[in-house]
Write a structure and sequence with these properties.
- The protein is an alpha+beta fold and about 150 residues long.
- Helices cover about 30% and strands about 35% of the residues.
- The chain has five helices and nine strands.
- The chain has helices at about 15-20, 25-30, 75-90, 105-110, 125-130, and strands spanning about 1-5, 35-40, 45-55, 60-65, 95-100, 115-120, 135, 140, 145-150.
- The strands form two sheets. It has a seven-stranded mixed sheet, sandwiched between helices. The chain has a two-stranded antiparallel ribbon with strand order 7-8.
């Protein structure tokens, strides 16, 4: 598998980006300032991760998604490991990611890779998305923020 940064001239893989964030309008807002990386396996894009700079020492993973048919095969872990490595190379000291209260799998995955729950933004998904979002029958209401200290 290869981890590659897309150039700003390449078309963004919206078929992946909209899996993790169903609002194209919100995705487009953060893509302008972000770096988009893809996981490529056998010449095919199988996952995407978006790294957004917050300050000189802090960045956020704004989006991470894996081809649905390939979930559970380690691609998400591969993306997280590589984006952590990239963030460290860029001298970021802190890396954060936000996910819904209903995102049980991602919450497990992020904590497995050393992210700790540091904040909750109440009613984020209710206030920012026109349609309710459900995962496994559970409504996404609150955003859970997880942070990893990259200096350790």
């Amino acid at each position: 598998m290869k981890f590659e940064k897309l150039s700003k001239k390449e078309s963004f893989p919206y078929e992946f980006l909209l899996l993790a964030d169903p609002s194209k309008e919100l995705v487009d807002k953060y893509l302008k300032q972000s770096d988009v990386f893809v996981a490529i396996q056998n010449g095919e894009t199988v996952g995407v991760v978006v790294l957004f700079p917050i300050t000189m020492v802090e960045a956020e993973i704004k989006n991470i998604a894996v081809k649905p048919a390939l979930e559970g095969q380690g691609i998400g872990s591969y993306l997280i490991k590589n984006v952590i490595k990239t963030a460290k190379q860029r001298k970021y000291q802190k890396l954060s990611i936000g996910t819904a209260n209903s995102s049980i799998g991602p919450l497990y995955l992020y904590q497995k890779h050393g992210f700790e729950i540091t904040d909750i933004i109440k009613w984020f998904f209710i206030n920012n998305y026109p349609e309710p979002i459900y995962e496994d029958g559970l409504q996404a209401k609150h955003m859970i923020i997880l942070t990893k200290d990259l200096t350790k």
